[in-house]
């Protein structure tokens, strides 16, 4: 299983850095209103001018880890080549997007290779596909940060679920922005401070869900970074970055985001 997963990571998974379209959860079920993950998960929208009178819009999911910090996937920012506007949208107790707060700064994981990984893939660093965004103002009082698991590898062994706010219907661009949840069975396939887990989700992961949190009863242990796909943009097989909040690189990323990048 491990060697097969390494080949998948080195090949198919790198495709995540080749498209500006993020990933999203199609299927699963609506997140329960008012629960801790509805209060912690956010919907991220980035706007990047692409030509005269035109702009590129990208969506991702993220999770509140401090009142002014959101953890998401690194390629959500790097694929957009320097977005001019990024905002975080929060869900109310009815699971609807209400409050919007601009992102004032962000920091990528120091080991994230970005587009360079296409030409020189390093599977041992793919779990560094992470970023922390600093909000221009604290999250609404109805929102609540979620604690990171102190031992993500052990947390991943427990029954887990993932959350996404991307396209609910793959072909319907207007179906994003509803927080959904699906069970996922995960197996750690690389180890170290930038570990990766491979899992099968109870729903299709498509456009809009990169950066979505993966949690078990032990806390937040993973972030969605890629799906196994070739022709269509959806699949239930998903790769997740396994979080190591005690690693120097992770702490460095969080500290730089707090300082404003």
Give the structure's gist in a few sentences.
By secondary structure, this protein is mainly β.
Description:
The protein has 261 residues and is mainly beta. The protein has a six-stranded antiparallel barrel with strand order 9-10-11-14-13-12. Strands 3-4-5-8-7-6 form a six-stranded antiparallel beta barrel. The chain has six helices and 14 strands.
What percentage of amino acids are in beta strands?
A: 35-45%
How far the N terminus sits from the C terminus, by CA atoms, comes to 38 Å
Low-confidence stretches: 1-24
Helix content: 10-25%
List how many beta strands DSSP finds. Answer: 14
What general outline do the C-alpha atoms trace?
A: globular
In the CATH hierarchy, the architecture is Beta Barrel
Q: Might you state the CATH topology name?
A: Thrombin, subunit H
**Strand numbers in spatial order across the main sheet:** 9-10-11-14-13-12
Series of secondary-structure elements, N-terminal to C-terminal: HEEHEEEHEEHEHEEEEEEH
Q: Please tally the helical runs, counting DSSP H or I stretches of 4 or more residues.
A: 6
Q: How large, in whole angstroms, is the Cα Rg?
A: 16 Å
Mean pLDDT: 77
Structural class: mainly beta
Domains, number: 1
Family: Belongs to the peptidase S1 family.
Domain Peptidase S1: 25-259
Organism: Chelatococcus sambhunathii
Protein name: S1 family peptidase
């Amino acid at each position: 299983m491990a060697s097969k997963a390494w080949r998948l990571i080195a090949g198919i998974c790198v495709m995540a850095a080749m498209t500006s379209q993020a990933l999203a959860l199609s299927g699963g079920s609506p997140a329960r209103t008012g629960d801790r993950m509805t209060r912690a998960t956010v919907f991220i929208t980035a706007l990047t001018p692409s030509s005269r009178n035109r702009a590129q819009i990208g969506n991702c999911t993220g999770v509140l880890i401090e009142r002014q910090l959101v953890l998401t996937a690194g390629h959500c920012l790097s694929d957009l080549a320097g977005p001019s506007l990024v905002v975080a949208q929060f869900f109310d107790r009815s699971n609807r997007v209400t409050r919007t707060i601009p992102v004032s700064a962000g920091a990528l994981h120091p080991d994230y290779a970005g587009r360079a990984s296409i030409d020189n893939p390093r599977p041992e660093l793919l779990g560094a596909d992470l970023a922390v965004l600093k909000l221009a103002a604290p999250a609404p009082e109805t929102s609540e940060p979620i604690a990171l698991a102190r031992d993500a590898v052990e947390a991943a062994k427990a029954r887990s679920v993932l959350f996404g706010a991307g396209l609910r219907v793959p072909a319907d661009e207007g179906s994003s922005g509803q927080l959904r949840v699906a069970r996922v069975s995960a197996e750690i396939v690389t180890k170290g401070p930038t570990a990766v887990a491979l899992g099968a989700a109870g729903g299709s992961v498509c456009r809009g869900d990169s950066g979505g949190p993966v949690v078990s009863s032990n806390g937040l242990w993973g972030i969605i970074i890629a799906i196994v796909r070739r022709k269509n943009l959806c699949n239930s097989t998903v790769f997740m970055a396994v979080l190591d909040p005690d690693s120097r690189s992770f702490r460095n990323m969080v500290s730089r985001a707090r300082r404003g990048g």
